[in-house]
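Long-time lurker. I teach an intro course on protein structure, and each term I like to show students one example going from raw sequence to a predicted 3D structure in token notation. This year I'd like something fresh instead of my usual example. Would anyone be willing to generate the tokens for the chain below so I can use it in lecture? Attribution to the forum is fine with me.
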Amino acid sequence: MPTYAYACKDCDHAFDIVQSFSDSSLTECPECKGALRKKFNSVGVVFKGSGFYRTDSRDAKGSTVSAAPAAPATAAASS
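-- Reply from a regular --
Happy to contribute to a lecture. Here you go:
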């Protein structure tokens, strides 16, 4: 179950509470009975597996650097 952060608009009382997704948001401060607002924090995201780093999913044909330099044309090949 996720933890939600709330802060009172009137007395600035701040607290965290564990609630289910199906529970409705709290609206009344437990300290002063004032109006509450839900605080939003950054979400921690963890990328696992391949494909998330610069070196992943790179091959010679997909990169901008050529794997081998092109051979110069010779005069013997044109005659």
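Some talking points for your students: The mean pLDDT is 76. DSSP finds one helix and three strands in the chain.
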